[in-house]
Amino acid sequence: MVPVGPPLCPSEGPLGPINAHARYARQRSIVLLYGNTKTEAIFNGVLCHPGPTLCLRGWERPCTPAGFYTADKMLKAHQGAQVDLIDRLPTPFGLVRSGVAPDHPETKIVVNQFSRVASHDRCSFFGNVSLGSSVSLSELRQTYDVVVLAYGSESDRSLGIPGKDLKGVYSAREFVWWYNGHPDYCEMAPELCNSDTAVVLGQGNVALDVARILLCPISELETTDIADHALDSLRKSTIRNVYLVGRRGPVQAACTAKELREILGMKNLNVHINKTDLATSPLDDEEMKNNRIRKRVYKLLTKAAKSPLGDSATDVQNLYFNGSSGKQMAVGTGEIEETKCGLVLKSIGYKSLPIDGLPFDNDRGVVPNVKGRVLTSTDKMDTKTEQGYMWWVGLKGDLLVLLVQTCIVPKKQ
To answer: Where along the sequence do coiled-coil regions lie (predicted)?
Structure first.
């Protein structure tokens, strides 16, 4: 198992109480912030670097993988560049720490690469710095040649139906952060003992992750780095049935074959799939013809639907797949089916949050950009970019190449 540190729910750090406004203790090139000195002192000396400077800002999700990959590319491509990674939390690694399932240690191996980046002589990590209170975006732009926003999507799309705010309804992101020990959600207390049924809205990889954790034997979770508070709650859990509900059919399921194969192969698990939901339309067939992943997912679900169910012993748990077939967009039929449950986890997509000083597309939940370059307006007809070098890192790899090639220039005196 790759050690990525204990779940982060402390009130104190290794050097004393953690405070947002802080003096810093430098250990080689990694900086953690503690104490009570004014935040302005954090950035003293940045302009003395011999080459151009780059600020990579990870906001809610600590120094996201996108930020580390960008830093790695910049350090390799520009020998004079100095990269500072700035984050609200005291620890780095973002989704690797708070988003990857605890029973997937092989995925966390990437922290070895990120650690090498952070220990580079021209790279520094500033933790416990909040954008807006510790430092403003305008101050970062005045201090650095380039600012890259790599803070991910720390909010969720709205469910938009009656009851979305009822007790027991959480986003899958919140649930994942809870069992991974994210400090914002270590006090969350999902009710796992008041019902034997949970419903997960969505059929992507995150939906499969939360369903698997709910149904995973405690003996297996005990060997992972899952947060202690989550393990204690799951140990007492009475949930034995999990429904995965999708707006569309199995052909449009957003999961990968690897993730689906893992949950379908769990021991003592009965998988229930309504065979009528597997019916396909000509458009479904066309989608599978043009997308091998969707074809593999559909074949796995079809095979699971034909597999015989086990007995009804007390240690057997159940996973139900529900979704309407043959529809490329979700359209209500007017029919309503009720499922009694004590927990609902929505996994229907994420969105970013706005930052003071930047335009924001509230409908899409993103900072308006063209290939990562931040625009001055959300108006689709206005393609003017922000002055200076301001970038918003998404998920497409070609952005990193574009960023490396174009954005580093010496600061004008």
So the answer is: none
pTM: 0.75
CA atoms lying within 13 Å on the CB side of residue 219: 2
**Cα–chain center distance at 102:** 14
Question: How many alpha carbons lie under 13 Å from residue 66 in its C-beta half-sphere?
Answer: 23
Helix (H) or strand (E) segment spanning residue 72:
helix 65-77
DSSP 105: G
Question: Which is nearest to 142 in space by CA: 31, 36, 40, 29?
Answer: 40
- Separation between Cα atoms, residue 318 and residue 211, nearest integer Å: 10
Written as tens digits, the pLDDT of the chain (413 aa) is 333 333 333 333 333 333 332 222 222 222 233 222 323 333 333 333 344 556 654 433 335 788 888 888 888 888 888 888 888 888 888 888 888 999 999 999 998 999 999 899 999 888 888 888 888 888 888 888 888 888 777 777 888 788 888 899 999 999 999 999 999 898 999 999 999 999 999 999 999 999 999 999 999 999 999 999 999 999 999 999 999 998 888 888 889 999 999 999 998 999 999 888 888 888 889 989 999 999 999 999 999 998 887 665 555 688 888 766 555 666 667 777 888 999 999 998 877 777 787 777 887 777 777 777 777 765 555 555 555 444 545 443 334 444 444 444 444 44
